[in-house]
Amino acid sequence: MSCSGIPHDVVIVGGGMVGAALAADLGQRGWRIGLVEAAPPQPIEPDSAYRLRVSALNRRAADYLDRLGAWHRIAATRACPYDRLGVWDGNGRARLTFHAEELRDGARYLGHIVENELVQGALWAALDACPTVVRYASRYASRLSPSPFGACIHLEDGRSLHGNLIVAADGAHSRLRQTAGIPLQVRDYRQSAVVAQVRTRTPQQQSITWQRFTAEGPQAFLPLVGPRASLVWYTTPDRARHLAELPAEQLREAFEAAFPAELGGLEAVEQRASFPIRAQHAHAYAGPGLVLVGDAAHTIHPLAGQGVNLGFRDAEALGRLLAEATARGQAPDDPTVLSAYARERRRDNQLMQSSMTAIRAGFESQRWPLPALRQCGLRLARHAGPAKRLALRYASEGPPLG
Ligand SMILES: Cc1cc2nc3c(=O)[nH]c(=O)nc-3n(C[C@H](O)[C@H](O)[C@H](O)COP(=O)(O)OP(=O)(O)OC[C@H]3O[C@@H](n4cnc5c(N)ncnc54)[C@H](O)[C@@H]3O)c2cc1C
């Protein structure tokens, strides 16, 4: 079927953090990009109200955002660095704290906590300097069968776009993935996360992010700039629904009662929402004329704070492989290029998903001999310098690039 849509080298559906990063990456290489986003980000200024959704960005993600010209905007607005990462189990007997200085590479931080919309907005601002990137504020509606000359998609506003390659960056519920008929492998944790943005009584815990594992699920503290934090309480879907509907004052009391003393006192709960937790992995990262990145390809349990960090690695790898392919004279939708991307990224993402499943099971299980084993394991890790440094490097940078 022929397509008379507006021509582009690559059409990216979804201008969230990952899709916008890929658009900036390819746009800065001079590629003609169409970026389709249903809900373009609202600008965030230093005095704007905080947005609820935040992410722990590791150092590699910050370096990538810096290369794309977005990090300086994030840093100039607000980003909370952390130099320690604390992990312990429900009774506090198995405890491990990672310090940035243990990396011995002069790093002052392990990562930063940043609002998702601020990251997205900074990437969109970086796109202003890319004249070959055209943004379409509309929703992807349907996709034509690919032809030998690329593929064509239709937008809800009636426009059609043609790309030599179409990228699905439209998140966990990716419509593009569904219309391409790519099935998912799903692990439902039967757990929900209550995410709350709170004002703390004291700002002294600002440079640490911590997680306590309980039989109910992990509890996490992510520091924000000033006396603020983002709290995540993993629990059963029923309890999460109940908590998310509590009046703010009762929810504040519930957090203080359930969370460990390290939380300190809470002044107020300002925003909250609950999210079902599922890990999913697309059976294929690519099809004819189509490739998947970010949450459209994979989601993992958010307890490790790795979801978008992995998505940035997808964007970085795809940008690099596409640039190398065109330098060799290959088309962007050449199946060997897309297979190389799929091979490289699936391995990485699968490894992180499996590690998360094992860590979560190891920490939450109360069944003998796991409580004893984890205490031994953490004690060992505390004293085994190289093993601890390896885990730390993995947390702050992710696995080495393939
Ligand atoms: C509770 C929780 C905590 C988390 N914490 C962390 C953390 O600390 N660190 C971390 O790395 N990750 C974290 N994550 C994961 C992280 O939020 C995701 O991995 C990340 O948002 C994925 O980015 P994305 O751009 O792939 O997808 P999304 O953020 O979902 O973006 C998709 C974009 O596509 C657009 N879109 C969707 N459909 C269409 C359509 N049909 N047409 C046009 N546009 C469309 C949407 O509007 C959106 O802008 C967490 C997740 C959860 C649930």
In short:
The chain is of the alpha+beta class.
Give short descriptive properties of this protein.
single chain, FAD/NAD(P)-binding domain, 402 residues, binds flavin-adenine dinucleotide, eight-stranded mixed β-sheet, alpha+beta
How does the major sheet shape up? 8 strands, mixed
What is the radius of gyration computed over CA atoms, rounded to a whole number of angstroms?
A: 22 Å
Dominant shape: globular
Strand % is 25-35%
Bound molecules: flavin-adenine dinucleotide
Structural class: alpha+beta
Count of helical segments? 11
CATH level 1 class label of the domain at 6-80 and 112-185 and 279-364: Alpha Beta
Kindly state the mean pLDDT as a whole number? 88
Enumerate the spans where pLDDT stays under 50 for 5 or more consecutive residues: none
| Proportion of helical residues | 25-40%
Instruction: Count all strands and give the number.
Output: 19
The CATH architecture term of the domain at 6-80 and 112-185 and 279-364 is 3-Layer(bba) Sandwich
CATH domain fold name of the domain at 6-80 and 112-185 and 279-364? FAD/NAD(P)-binding domain
* CATH H level, superfamily name of the domain at 6-80 and 112-185 and 279-364: FAD/NAD(P)-binding domain
Q: Give the helices and strands as they follow along the chain.
A: EHEEHHEEEEHEEEEHEEEEHHEEEEHHHH
Spatial separation of the terminal alpha carbons: 37 Å
Description:
A hairpin with a 3-residue loop joins strand 14 and strand 15. The protein has a domain of 235 residues: FAD/NAD(P)-binding domain. Helix 1 runs parallel beside helix 4 and helix 8 runs antiparallel to helix 9. With 402 residues, it is of the alpha+beta class. It is globular and about 60 Å long. The chain is built from eleven helices and 19 strands. The longest helix has 30 residues. Strands 1, 2, 8, 9, 10, 11, 17 and 18 form an eight-stranded mixed sheet that branches. 35% of the residues lie in helices and 30% in strands. The two termini are 37 Å apart. Bound molecules: flavin-adenine dinucleotide. The site of flavin-adenine dinucleotide (FAD) has 33 residues, from helix 1, strand 3, strand 12 and helix 8.
